[in-house]
Amino acid sequence: MSLGDKLENAKDKVVGAAKDKLGELRDDKGQQAEGKAQNAKGKAGDAAEDVKDKFK
Questions:
Q1: pTM (predicted TM-score)
Q2: Neighbouring residues of 6: CB distance < 8 A, sequence distance ≥ 6
Q3: Which ranges constitute the DSSP H helices of 1-56?
Q4: Per-residue pLDDT of the chain (56 residues; tens, 9 = 90+)
Q5: Fewer C-beta within 10 Å: the chain N or C terminus?
Q6: Can you tell me where the transmembrane regions are (predicted)?
């Protein structure tokens, strides 16, 4: 896993979690959904990179 990929995935997880929480506080379902999706994207990216690393 490259450092750039790790940083991008970590950013997606952190920003996604923040958007989710902010949406919850504001009662903004759209922002919550966006945050959950971005968080999931970061987690999926980590999983994909782990699979690639195992086949190297």
A1: 0.86
A2: 46, 49
A3: 3-26, 29-54
A4: 688 889 999 999 999 999 999 999 999 999 999 999 999 999 999 999 888 888 87
A5: C
A6: none
